[in-house]
Amino acid sequence: MKVSLVLCPNWGTETPHLGIALLAANLRRHNHDVRVFDLNIRVQRGIQGNRDIWKTEDDRQWTKAAFTADFIGEKNATIDLFVENILASDAQIIGFSVYSSTYLISLELARRIKRKDSSKIIVFGGQFCYPKTNAETLAGYECVDIVVTGEGEDVLIEIIDKFEATKKIDFCTGIIFKDNGNLVNCGFREPIMNLDDLPFADFSDFTLSIYDNPSQLPVFLSRGCPYTCVFCSTKLFWMRYRAMSGKRVFKEIEYQMSKYKDVYFFSFNDHVVNADMRNLSVLCDLIIDAKSKRKQDNPNWEKVSWRGAAVLRDGMTMDFLKKMKDAGCVELEYGAESGSPRVRKLMKKSPYEGDILEQVIRDTCAVGIGARVNFMFGFPGETEEDFRETLDFLKRNKDYFSQVHPSESFCCVDQGTYLFEHPEEFGVINRYSPLFWHTSDGKNTYPERLRRHQVFCELAESLNIPLSPGASRIKQHKDDLLREYDSYRISREGQ
Question: Which structural domain range is residue 447 located in?
Answer without folding.
Answer: 195-493
